[in-house]
Amino acid sequence: MTAMSMLALLLTHPLEFLTLAQFWLYHDKNRDISSPSEHATSGWDRQSMRRCWEFLDLSGRSFSAVVKELDGDLARTICLFYLVLRGLDTIEDDMTIPDDVKQPILRSFHEKTVTPGWTFKENGPDEKDRQLLVEYDVVAEELNRVAPDCRDVIVDICHKMEVGMADYAHKAASTSSLYLATVAEYDLYCQYVAGLVGEGLSRLFSASGKEADWLQYQLELSNSMGSLLQKTNIIRDYREDVEEGRFFWPREIWGREEYGGFKEMAEMYVPANQERALWVQSGMVVDALRHAQDSLDYLRLLKNQTVFNFCAIPATMAMATLELCFMNPDMFQRNIRIRKAEAARLIMRSTNPRGCAYMFRDYARKIHAKASPSDPNFLRLSVACGKIEQWCERHYPSFVNVVQAQGNASQLFDPLDTRTRIVQVEQKQAEELLSRKRRVDGKPVALETPAAT
What's any one GO cellular component for it (predicted)? Predict the structure, then answer.
């Protein structure tokens, strides 16, 4: 941000200015992968890997920074994993490539991605990530340097993903079917393009030794993490996708009679259809929220702090984006994003499962507060938000506050919550029982105090 924009922010949104100042002063200190001490793990001493890091930076400063913070050589592995899938996606998205050319490339991309010297120069001139494929030989060179078990994971996920992408690209080109018909088909698409990313990341976390070996087998939770992010992006990018001829919202949702029976997705950005379009959007948000609990379950399994941050920050930003889009007619007219101060706040707070769970809960409450009883999805939305609230209360009861003091964690109970009285009664009964046993036995007896639930 420029000095003038910061001054304007200070005058118009002083609290946001304070948040950004805190972020830049205390948190915006990234790992220096160019430092000689990091060369062994970051590969910065090689020209080919430096170019890969540059391509990663082009994806977005925030995402690149989170990747670079990962421990050891896991950062380099995830960087290459992202570039491989970005290259695959660039070919699949390019509508200027004929289907008879696109199909063999997509279906053999997992082989080409480890072929030394392979590049691709047939993308359209306006394709955003065209240069990545023009210089893809640097990715192949570096991928062949990765540990074999991690490289095998990347190649396997690429192979699975390319099959799904090729099938959908061929369907669109040969049948002129530009729509996903059912929610099941929508889920399958998201599983191919995002759920497999979640699976691959879990397998890489395990293969690198940063997380437990059994994490790689949590396929349902990994898929939900990826699907939550993908569905959020699909909802937010409605206008951009429609204008470019990409229709990812399933007809089973937007074509329902209870929403007035839209015939085409483009009808939803017509101002006269605003209310009914918001009902469709509400249905899409309800569908995305069903992945929230699995995502929270997944975050609770992570032990490495940098891995947790890498997964938690996009998840909390997805919830913030859903809240921003919900019942917001501007989403149908342009691409909207959360404010920079909000993103900075989420990055600073996404450091532990409890904090993330409460952020999920807070955004779910905001979504529910904007819901209208006239919306056909009102009850379904209320249930979805209630499930997030229930999950948080079950795993992190709101009347229990965890306080850190001198390196030790202690629990303080809210005196105004009636559940505190129950816990206090149980603790008193346990102490009395312990005292009686000591008098009878004449010696100390170890007895665990019932845990607060």
Answer: endoplasmic reticulum membrane
Q: Do residues 196 and 224 lie in contact, with contact meaning Cβ atoms separated by under 8 Å?
A: no
How large is the average pLDDT for residues 229-252? 91
Catalytic residue among 55, 81, 168, 189: 189
Is residue 334 annotated as part of the catalytic site, yes or no? no
DSSP state of 213: G
**Alpha helices (H) in 176-218, listed in sequence order:** 183-190, 196-207
- Active-site choice (151, 236, 251, 345): 236
Active site residue 399: no
Integer Cα distance of 427 and 450 in angstroms: 7
Q: Is 327 left (phi over 0), alpha (psi -120 to 50) or beta?
A: left
391 and 408 share one domain:
no
Specify burial of residue 190 (Cβ count, 10 A radius: 0-12, 13-18, 19+): buried
The verdict on 428 and 369 lying in the same domain is no
In this structure, are 382 and 252 located in the same domain? yes
- Known catalytic residue at 189: yes
Catalytic residue among 246, 290, 300, 349: 246
Shared domain check, 241 and 381 = yes
- Cβ distance 397 to 453 under 8 Å? yes
Domain span including residue 382 = 205-395
Catalytically annotated residue among 186, 205, 310, 332 = 310
Judge whether 449 lies within some domain.
no
How many domains in the chain? 3
- Tokens representing 436? 């009686």
**Tokens 């699995």 label which residue?**
294
- CATH number for 64: 1.10.600.10
Residues 358 and 293 grouped into a single domain: yes
Q: Is 205 a catalytic residue?
A: no
Count other C-beta atoms under 10 Å from residue 274's C-beta: 13
The DSSP code for 414 is: -
Q: What's the pLDDT at 431?
A: 87
CA atoms within 13 A on the CB side of 391: 27
Q: Give the residue with greater pLDDT, 30 vs 270.
A: 270
